[in-house]
Amino acid sequence: MTASPHADNLRSDLELALRLADAADGQSLPRFDAADLEISTKADNSHVTDADLATERAVRGILATERPDDGIFGEEFGAQGSTHRQWIIDPIDGTANFLRGVPLWGTMIALAIDGVPQVGVVSMPALGRRWWAATGEGAWTDDDGGARRLRTSSVSSLDDASVSFQSIAQWSDAGRLDALLRVAARVWRDRAYGDVYAYMLLAEGRIDMVAEFDVKEYDIAAAVPIVREAGGRMTAIDGAETIAARSTLATNGTLHDDFLTLLLQD
């Protein structure tokens, strides 16, 4: 069967995204746990390091050469250009971990077409791991030097579910602490694995739900194709099919409606 031009284009975009991740790793990993790491505070009181800035610059530089007509939306340098085809970049997701020497951080690279992420790459070089997906091409990770296809879990009961809630403070600040406690009381196991790593655990079938608040598009866009192509589902906490709602609920797919019902109880 001959692939459609759309599929061919996405494969090309995915190949580029993987090369962007290589370039990002080349900037971020040498600065991880560096004694001279430069750290400053942004207007929202979050931290930014010289590695965040250098990583996003490296990605933007390649895109300017290879996809000059595409738009870019990055955490550190904002949005520019087209929103029809827009690369969404989080140079270091988990900066707090990065600056404390905790290896659970990664670069997130997505291509969204008309607001829907179609390509996603997550690279966590301190763990030596990478995950990637494009619509219709499946979700994959590297495993002992070879590619392994991802599949979300087959857990079908909340009683057996393992979930990641990211942080108590997030839920409290969103006024949803009661919902978090309700989830924790209902499921088998709750943990806060944190940041992008939790979504990759979901895509690998190791946990069954991730939910969080106060997220920007660049915090979640790259995870969307990976979770979706692995058989899962991602929406906002209220079920809306958008990455712009400042909340996200990611599940193995089977349990999505059950979690929505549980979370939206009065």
Percent of sequence in beta strands: 25-35%
**What is the terminal separation in angstroms?**
50 Å
What is the residue-mean pLDDT, rounded to a whole number? Answer: 95
* Spatial sequence of strands, sheet with the most strands: 4-3-5-6-7-8-9-10
CATH superfamily of the largest domain: Fructose-1,6-Bisphosphatase, subunit A, domain 1
- Helical run tally: 9
Secondary-structure element order, N to C: HEEHEEEHEEEEEEHHEHEHHEEH
Number-wise, the strands total: 15
Q: What is the total domain count?
A: 2
Low-pLDDT windows of residues: 1-5
Q: The CATH topology of the largest domain is what?
A: Fructose-1,6-Bisphosphatase, Chain A, domain 1
Which CATH architecture of the largest domain would you pick?
A: 2-Layer Sandwich
Short description:
By secondary structure, this protein is of the alpha+beta class. The chain is built from nine helices and 15 strands. It starts with a helix and ends with a helix.
Structural account:
The protein is built from nine helices and 15 strands. It is globular and about 50 Å long. Strand 7 (116-124) and strand 8 form a beta hairpin. An eight-stranded mixed sheet has the order 4-3-5-6-7-8-9-10, sandwiched between helices. Strands 12-11-13-15-14 form a five-stranded mixed sheet, with helices on both faces. A two-stranded antiparallel ribbon has the order 1-2. The chain folds into two domains: 5-145, Fructose-1,6-Bisphosphatase, Chain A, domain 1; 158-263, 3-Layer(aba) Sandwich (D-Maltodextrin-Binding Protein, domain 2). With 266 residues, the chain is α+β, with helices and mostly antiparallel strands. Helix 1 packs antiparallel against helix 2 and helix 6 packs parallel to helix 8. The chain has helices at 5-28, 50-66, 95-100, 168-173, 177-186, 195-203, 217-220, 223-229, 256-263, and strands at residues 39-41, 47-49, 71-74, 78-80, 85-93, 106-113, 116-124, 129-134, 139-143, 146-149, 162-164, 189-191, 209-213, 233-235, 247-251.
